[in-house]
């Protein structure tokens, strides 16, 4: 089922896969990169070639077409999108081993990936810090309105990201969204076993004596969709086209549906259908 947009600026309709239970959401857990923030837009164009190079350098990788190894890297990268970045690097090490190579410590791959990524996005961070870049241009369109709408409906917001927490806190502040979460901002830790989105969700339910149906999740990755669905919550897949800031990313959409998303939106330009879906 599709709900047509009510404004000319939102030409890609919201897609409803299944209806929500007749229970108002009281809490929402949101991913950050690709769901709210576009500061790190283009991270895939850093990680995929880097990981592909690592696979190509293995004994088995030298015997396979680069396109095949790139497809392999793309698939396992997305499957772990939403988890801490270290899990993508652990998956890389596993694939290197399967191809007859001897992997480095996954943390080494994470550090090198992050060094390359920061080179790409440093001008964005500087521009936000000195005011030369409008924060709105580095968010998924409609993000500020979405956060306002949820808070006006009495929903308590949590932010949970696979990006290192120190960077999430900084970037949320640069975008001016940190106050919306009332201190509930969580990200990856150096000791990766001490944090996961699953842990954050379990904490929300436990501390607030919450039924799963009272939780809604927003994310553009596999993990947050699966985690929210696993506890009986509703999951809104954000198939954001990060580069264009408009329309659906078909590759994201297919994988979000595979993960179990209950609804798909391209962004938050038109909140009326989404508000009706969540609050009826």
Can I get a quick summary?
The chain is an alpha/beta fold.
Describe the structure.
The protein has 10 helices and 8 strands. It is of the alpha/beta class. The chain has 2 domains: about 1-40 and about 140-280, HAD superfamily/HAD-like (Rossmann fold, 3-Layer(aba) Sandwich), CATH 3.40.50; about 45-130, no CATH class. An 8-stranded mixed sheet has the order 1-2-8-7-6-3-4-5, sandwiched between helices. Helix 3 (about 85-100) packs antiparallel against helix 4 and helix 8 (about 220-230) packs parallel to helix 9 (about 250-260). The two termini are about 15 Å apart. Residues about 1-10 have low confidence and may be disordered.
Salient structural properties:
Rossmann fold, eight-stranded mixed sheet, alpha/beta, single chain, globular, disordered N terminus, 8 strands
- Radius of gyration, Cα only, in angstroms? 19 Å
Q: State the distance separating the first and last CA atoms.
A: 16 Å
Question: Secondary-structure element sequence?
Answer: EEEHHHHHEHEHEHEHEH
What is the count of distinct domains? Answer: 2
Given the C-alpha coordinates, what overall shape results?
globular
Tell me, what is the CATH class of the largest domain? Alpha Beta
Task: Say which CATH homologous superfamily of the largest domain is assigned.
Answer: HAD superfamily/HAD-like
Q: Strand-residue fraction?
A: 5-15%
Number of strands: 8
Strand order of the largest sheet: 1-2-8-7-6-3-4-5
**Architecture of the largest domain, according to CATH?**
3-Layer(aba) Sandwich
* CATH topological fold name of the largest domain: Rossmann fold
- Uncertain residue segments: 1-10
**Number of helical elements:** 10
Described by strand count, sense and barrel closure, the largest sheet is: 8 strands, mixed
Based on secondary structure, the structural category is alpha/beta
| Helical content class | 40-55%
Mean pLDDT: 93
């Amino acid at each position: 089922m599709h709900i047509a947009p009510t404004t000319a600026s939102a030409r890609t309709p919201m897609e409803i896969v299944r209806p929500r239970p007749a229970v108002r959401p009281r809490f929402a857990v949101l991913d950050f990169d690709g769901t709210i923030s576009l500061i790190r837009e283009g991270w895939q164009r850093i990680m995929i070639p880097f990981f592909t190079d690592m696979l190509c350098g293995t004994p088995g990788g030298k015997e396979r077409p680069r396109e095949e190894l790139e497809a392999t890297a793309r698939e396992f990268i997305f499957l772990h999108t939403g988890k801490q970045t270290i899990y993508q690097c652990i998956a890389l090490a596993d694939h290197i081993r399967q191809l007859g190579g001897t992997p480095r410590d996954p943390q080494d791959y994470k550090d090198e990936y992050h060094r390359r990524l920061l080179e790409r996005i440093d001008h964005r961070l500087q521009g936000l810090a000195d005011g030369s870049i409008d924060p709105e241009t580095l968010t998924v369109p409609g993000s500020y309105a979405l956060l306002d709408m949820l808070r006006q409906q009495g929903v308590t917001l949590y932010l949970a990201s696979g990006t290192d927490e120190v960077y999430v806190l900084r970037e949320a502040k640069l975008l001016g969204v940190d106050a919306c979460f009332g201190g509930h901002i969580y990200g990856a830790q150096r000791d990766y076993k001490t944090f996961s989105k699953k842990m954050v969700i379990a904490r929300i339910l436990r501390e607030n004596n919450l039924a799963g149906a009272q939780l809604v999740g927003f994310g553009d990755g596999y993990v947050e969709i699966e985690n929210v669905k696993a506890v009986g919550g509703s999951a809104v897949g954000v198939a954001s086209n990060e580069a264009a800031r408009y329309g659906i990313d078909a590759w994201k959409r297919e994988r979000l549906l595979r993960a179990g998303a209950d609804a798909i939106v391209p962004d938050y330009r038109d909140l009326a259908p989404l508000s009706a879906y969540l609050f009826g």
